[in-house]
Give the backbone structure.
Amino acid sequence: MVRGCRDAARASDAARADRPGARNLAESRRSALMQAARRGEPFDEETGLPSPELRAKLQKVTWYQHTRDFIEKRWDGAPAKSRRNFADALATITPALVKTEAGRPDPRVLPRALYSWAYNKLAWRQEPRPE
């Protein structure tokens, strides 16, 4: 259990060495890990994270999943105009909330894919078109 804490602390030390000015953040992280070890919290051997922290990390819901859940719950009882408005609103706002550019499709393709497939429950049974 403590081994995972030590591995995570070493990773924090390595991160501190790579980024100037991150010393305080690394020390704070190390301190949090050591406190978890003192409280007797189990550590995941693969990630080196305390189990409660890992559980919380795995339970996070992404924006995309949240919007898909919304469509799934509202779709069947909504009139066609409302369905179209849901899809349009979500397809408009979602690209603005995407944090990373890595793997992001062309700016003209993303809203179209969201509108016609991701936020169209009737299209979920089909594979998305490879555009």
Remarks:
- The radius of gyration is 21 Å.
- DSSP finds six helices and no strands in the chain.
